[in-house]
Amino acid sequence: MSWEEFLWHMDHRLGMYVGRPTYERGFSALTGFDLARGRGELAAFQKWMSARHHGSSLAFWSLVLVETFGEGATKDRLVSDHDHKRAVSNLCRLFREFLGQASTAEQ
To answer: Sorting pLDDT into bands at 50, 70 and 90, what band is 6?
Structure first.
């Protein structure tokens, strides 16, 4: 399964795989898929997100929440199913953007 296919399923059908589709479960699914692939894309994504936030030392999952809900956002900000959906969709969007830039840089 490719990243694009995995991200589509994560964005549109996460609950089918993990039960209640929360941001934490989406992040865990993303981490598991990366580990199964064994290519280190998530480590590169962390560096990309850190650079995008002027060298921030926050983990990428926190930076995604900042981009989704604004400065100072934490997982406590996720109070509704809609909040979780927004965060998961934004994580997928950002990872797709990262993959697009990474493939362009390789060419």
So the answer is: very high
